[in-house]
Design a protein that fits this description.
By secondary structure, the chain is of the alpha/beta class. It folds into two domains: 4-85 and 197-268, HAD superfamily/HAD-like (Rossmann fold, 3-Layer(aba) Sandwich), CATH 3.40.50.1000; 90-193, Hypothetical Protein, Haloacid Dehalogenase-like Hydrolase, Chain: A, domain 2 (2-Layer Sandwich). The protein has nine helices and 14 strands. Strand 10 (181-185) and strand 11 (189-193) form a beta hairpin. One of its GO terms (cellular component) is cytosol.
């Protein structure tokens, strides 16, 4: 019996406009009513997930959780209490930021525990934020010293040009000699976390706290930053729009995409 479902949000559980289908809501509510944990697992801040939690009936609920920043934190919904944290060291985050900002057509995000800062924000990125309840603080200059006394969770860059994203990815790997976790997400971002910090590590660690084994966890994903969780749980599921690497890692590929692929998977696994 599966005891936990964890799901990526953007382009897995949520539509391209950031909304969720009623079919997905109903399936999750049915699974939760049977005692199954439902844990959103996102690269975004947990603060941007609050409206979704209200739709799912999990808002401010004790002993229910959200995984944010690609595994950087695990937060209990009641009181938004951080129960697990894996931050980036300052020097590491600064090197990632300085490397990514050299790409002048990209904007660069710095996530602290509860704030998002953006250097050189792009209009198309800002439009994407608005569909996902994301707010941010503009960085007027690339002076990274403002983060010296803050807890940094991750650094990412956005550019819709695939060639530029590949160049940024390669530049990060070269700067860190491979000793960093760098992934793609949403078809527009390059994401950088501390080595060993990922969605999979976080859900396994949460499972240990709750007495849930990896074999008792179902994970839904679509993109490369989901691979770490898909390869560590008992039942990895790709929605139909998952990239080829995600579909290859999955034991189940749904016929439906983000519209109701999660609902389809939950039903096929007998969890509703």
């Amino acid at each position: 019996m599966y005891k936990m479902i964890t799901s990526d949000l953007d382009e897995t559980l949520l539509r391209a406009d950031g909304s969720i289908s009623q079919a997905n809501v109903d399936a999750i509510e049915a699974a939760v009513s049977r005692g199954v944990k439902f844990v959103p697992n996102t690269g975004r801040s947990y603060l941007t997930v609050q409206a979704l939690l209200k739709q799912l009936g999990l808002y401010q609920t004790a002993d229910e959780y959200v995984i944010s920043y690609n595994g950087g934190v695990v937060v209990e919904n009641a009181g938004n209490q951080i129960v697990i944290s894996h931050a980036m060291p300052y020097d590491e985050a600064k090197l990632a930021f300085d490397t990514l900002r050299q790409f002048e057509t990209a904007d660069v995000h710095v996530y602290t525990t509860d704030q998002l800062y953006i250097y050189r924000v792009r209009a198309d990125d800002e439009a994407y934020f608005k569909t996902r309840n994301v707010t941010y603080i503009p960085m007027a200059t690339p002076d990274f010293s403002i983060f010296k006394d803050q807890t940094i969770m991750k650094v990412i860059a956005m550019n819709p040009d695939e060639t530029v994203r590949h160049q940024m990815f390669a530049a990060i790997e070269e700067a860190f000699n491979g000793g960093i976790n760098v992934t793609y997400s949403s078809g527009i971002y390059v994401e950088v976390n501390h080595a060993g910090v990922d969605k999979g590590q976080a859900v396994i660690e949460l499972g240990e706290r709750l007495g849930i084994t990896p074999d008792e966890i179902v994970a839904f994903g679509d993109n490369s930053n989901d691979l770490a969780m898909l390869t560590q749980v008992g039942m990895p599921v790709s929605v139909a729009n998952g990239i080829p690497e995600v579909q290859q890692a999955a034991k189940l590929v749904t016929d439906a995409d983000y519209e109701d692929g999660v609902a389809e998977g939950i039903k096929k696994l007998g969890l509703m």
